Amino acid sequence: MNSFDRIVAKGVRSVLEEDLGKSTYKKIEKEVFDVHGISILDAVSDFSKLDLVLRKFFGKHTTNIESKIFKKILSINNETKTESVIKIKDYDVAKTIFEAYGDPAKKIILDLLLHEAKSIPETIAKSKLPKASTYTRIKELIQDGLLTMVGFTNASDGRKVNEYATTFSKTVFEINDEHISIDANIQKEFLRDSFAFNSIQEIKSM
Fold first, then answer.
1. N or C: which end of the chain has fewer CB within 10 A?
2. Residue 107 to residue 148: CA distance in whole angstroms
C-alpha cells in the first residue's frame, strides 16, 4: 500500500461522494465491502481495490472519473530527477498533514526521520519521549502515510524490523482564512507505485 495514496485517501473519499452523489456512493461503499471486506477509506488507501469496483460501475469511463477526482485534490508543481513538488489542495488532506506537523511529539518524530531512516524502537529511543505514546504516534503517522517504510534493519535481539523515513522531504503550508494548501517535496521512488500520482501524470501528458 503506497504511503502517498494513504495521504490523499480522505480527500478521495469526500470528493468521490461529492461528485457521484450519496446514492451512488453508498452503492459503491457496499460493493467495496461485499467484494473486499473493507471500508471504502481502506480501499481508497489501497486504490487498486477501489478501482476494480469503480470499473464494475462505470466501465471505460472509470479512468476519466478517477483523474478528475485526483485533479481536485492535488497537482504537480515541479519535478527534478529525484523529487516531485506536489501541491495538495484538498482541505481534509491538508488539515491532516497540518495537524500532524503541529503536534509537538509527531514533529519530533518527523524531524528525526527526515534525513535518516530508523526503526520504530530506535526512533522511540532517540526521541526521548514516553514509549507508549510515541509508539502510538508513530503508528498514526504510518497510517496517515506521513512515514514510508524504506527497508529493514536488525534489532538488538537479532530480529529483522522495518525502517521508516518521512514521506515528505519538505513541506510549505499556505493558510488563507480557513483554507489550507501545502507544497510538499517527495522523493520519486516513493511515488513509483502511487495510483494518485500516476493518474495526475496521465492528465499532464494528455
1. C
2. 15
96: nearest Cα among 206, 178, 8, 199: 8
Tell the burial category of 169 from Cβ atoms under 10 Å away from its Cβ (0-12, 13-18, 19+).
middle
Contact 32, 53 (CB under 8 A): yes
Residue ranges of the chain with per-residue pLDDT less than 70 = 203-206
67 within 8 A of 16, measured Cβ to Cβ: no
Look up cell 537479532; give the residue. 158
24-66 tens-digit pLDDT: 999 999 999 999 999 988 898 888 899 999 999 999 999 888 8
How far is residue 156's CA from residue 136's CA, in Å, rounded to a whole number? 21
Q: What is the pTM of this model?
A: 0.88
Chain centroid offset of residue 166 CA: 11
Bridge partner residues of 176 (DSSP): 179
